[in-house]
Design brief:
With about 120 residues, the protein is mainly α. Helix content is about 45%, strand content about 0%. The protein is built from 3 helices and no strands. The chain has helices at about 5-35, 40-50, 60-70. Helix 2 packs across helix 3 (about 60-70). The radius of gyration is 30 Å and the shape is rod-shaped. The N and C termini lie far apart (about 80 Å).
Length: about 120
């Protein structure tokens, strides 16, 4: 073999090794992603990969995730607390905004907006 063929052969081998490693890392990313019920993004997946001894950056994990077409699920940090139009008939406003009862301890009221 000539020197050019050796160099070409060496670089081809390196590219094959690099491609195999990339595919192995992508498989690990997919496993971690599925185990987290599709909740983990690149930062948490990077931490999990590093726990297994993989040397990889968060940016690389994010790039691989984009190439694979996966992304973390975003969960809403709050819920809507408005009154439903089909409000139960059992829970009605029996006080009817009459805040001056006839005798003590007849009516109690509280503010529950913190719930």
């Amino acid at each position: 073999m000539s020197l050019a063929q050796d160099i070409l052969h060496g670089s081809t081998t390196y590219l094959l090794i690099q491609k195999k490693r990339r595919e192995a890392v992508k498989a690990k990313i997919q496993d971690i992603y599925d185990d987290s019920k599709q909740n983990y993004g690149a930062p948490k997946i990077t931490v999990e990969l590093r726990k297994t001894g993989e040397v990889i950056s968060e940016r690389t994990v994010g790039t691989y995730m984009r190439q694979m077409g996966i992304r973390a699920q975003w969960s809403k940090p709050w819920t809507i607390t408005t009154k439903d139009s089909d409000f139960s008939t059992e829970l009605q406003n029996i006080l009817d905004e009459q805040f001056n009862p006839d005798h003590p301890n007849a009516v109690w009221c509280s503010d529950i907006t913190y719930i």
